[in-house]
Write a structure and sequence with these properties.
Elements lengths: L2 H16 L6 H5 L1 H39 L3 E6 L4 E4 L3 H4 L10 H6 L9 H8 L3 E9 L2 E13 L5 E10 L1 H54 L4 H32 L10 E3 L1 H11 L1 H5 L4 E7 L6 E3 L1 H19 L3 E10 L2 E8 L29 H11 L3 E7 L3 E9 L2 H4 L1
Helix pairs in contact: 7-8, 11-12
Length: 422
């Protein structure tokens, strides 16, 4: 310390003694040195704050990485249904530039008010975790999500935000549905095989004896007197016998349809041109098309369709059934559009009508044996289930897309043989 500084300290100390004031740190070391110490302390505290901020940023990035790594869609929602935060997977399903700050029902359900039986509302009311299976229509595709809503509680144990985890179970549900359907078909197949066997025996006897009576009708006609009563009797016999034979044939067709559900030996598949089969079916049904002139039927097919391996008779049965269902749907007036195309290693045959469509409640039962929405006497409900079974045996699948009062599209997907793709 310089002499000048010593003099300053001495003068300040003397003034303090004369004025009876306590001596401070500033009086002893000087104001300039006190300021330097203060700024040093501030700088030290600022360094601590910056270190804390960096640590918080690292923790935040770590949490964001964890959230983005979660294989489920994750959303944090406030108690008034406002989206606070989402993880990266959210934008994979719900295409929205900036979902934060919007209401969840606007982004997820395209609604202008909260959903009925909303799991968030239930979780908020009960202050407990709530789970619910929910469906979402995203880009014209039907998705199913297993939704879990967990309340985030404050210090008073009140829920103020909600963590929503949405697991996509669409494919899982599809596989489960196919598995359940396969088990059902196996049971129906075993039952159908037994029923068909038991019905075939008496049916063969009825048909055989009826044809025997039919052959004896001319002999009976000669033995009867030539009277009006005898002619009426012969007409009745002829009508009754023809009716019995017709009904026997119908029962035989039903039995044959039942047999498609039963386990059977491997069918020999041969190379087939599906385009030729479709055009052949259209020629076969030409007479029926003439009876409904107000129905427009068009076929759009690619020029070159590779051959598939299959059974021609069974595929014809599928195509006829689907076309007839389309004609029933338009009810005598409308459009029936057929298309045939190839994509990658699969052939697609689609039948689209603009009829009354299918009730969403019936979609899951559409291919169930003996399920039908037609009036009694117009169908027994084995047509579509037979088609499903035939296409399944061809290692393909049938897809259905329908909307009430707008129409239905059935698409048959068949694989190309390996040698075609080689």
């Amino acid at each position: 310390m310089t002499d000048f500084s010593y003099n300053k300290v001495f003068i300040w100390s003397l003034e303090a003694i004369i004025m009876n004031k306590p001596t401070t740190l500033e009086d002893i070391i000087g104001l300039e040195y006190t300021k330097l110490g203060f700024f040093g302390e501030v700088k030290k505290n600022m360094a601590k704050v910056q270190a804390t901020n960096r640590q918080l940023e690292r923790k935040q990035r770590k949490l964001e990485a964890i959230f983005d790594g979660i294989s489920d869609v994750m959303v944090i929602i406030s108690s008034n249904f406002t989206i606070i935060s989402v993880n990266e997977l959210f934008s994979t399903f719900f295409k929205h530039a900036n979902p934060k700050g919007n209401f969840c029902y606007e982004i997820l359900k395209k609604r202008d008010c909260p959903c009925v039986e909303c799991p968030i509302s239930k979780s908020r009311a009960t202050n407990k975790v709530c789970r619910k299976m929910m469906t979402f229509d995203i880009e014209n595709k039907h998705y199913q999500f297993d939704v879990t809503v967990s309340p985030l509680r404050d210090a008073q144990k009140n829920a103020f935000r909600f963590l929503v985890l949405m697991r996509d179970v669409t494919r899982e549900k599809e596989y489960q549905s196919k598995y359940n359907y396969s088990k059902k078909m196996a049971t129906v197949g075993a039952l159908a095989a037994g029923v068909a066997h038991e019905i075939n025996n008496p049916l063969t006897s009825i048909s055989g004896f009826t044809k025997g009576l039919q052959r004896r009708l001319p002999i009976l006609d000669k033995t009867l007197p030539d009277t009006e009563e005898s002619r009426e009797l012969m007409d009745d016999f002829t009508e009754y016998i023809d009716t019995i034979l017709t009904e026997c044939d119908r029962c035989r067709d039903i039995v044959q349809g039942l047999l498609t559900f039963s386990p059977r030996k491997k069918v020999d598949f041969t190379p087939l041109n599906l385009k030729h089969i479709v055009t052949g079916v259209l020629r076969l049904l030409h007479h029926r098309f003439k009876e409904i002139p107000q129905v427009t039927i068009t076929l759009k097919a690619e020029k070159e369709i590779p051959p598939i391996m299959g059974n021609a008779a069974e595929l014809k049965q599928v195509i006829i059934n689907l076309i007839c269902n389309g004609l029933d749907a338009v009810n005598g007036k409308g459009d029936l559009q057929l298309s045939l195309s190839q994509k990658d290693d699969e052939i697609f045959f689609a039948i689209k009508d603009d009829g009354y469509g299918i009730n969403p409640e019936n979609m899951d039962q559409l291919f169930d044996p003996f399920f039908t929405t037609k009036p009694i006497g117009q169908g027994i409900g084995i047509g579509l289930s037979t088609c499903y079974n035939i296409i399944h045996q061809h290692h393909g699948e049938i897809l259905v897309k329908s909307k009430e009062n707008e129409g239905t599209t059935f698409t048959v997907v068949l694989p190309l043989p390996d040698e075609v793709m080689a």
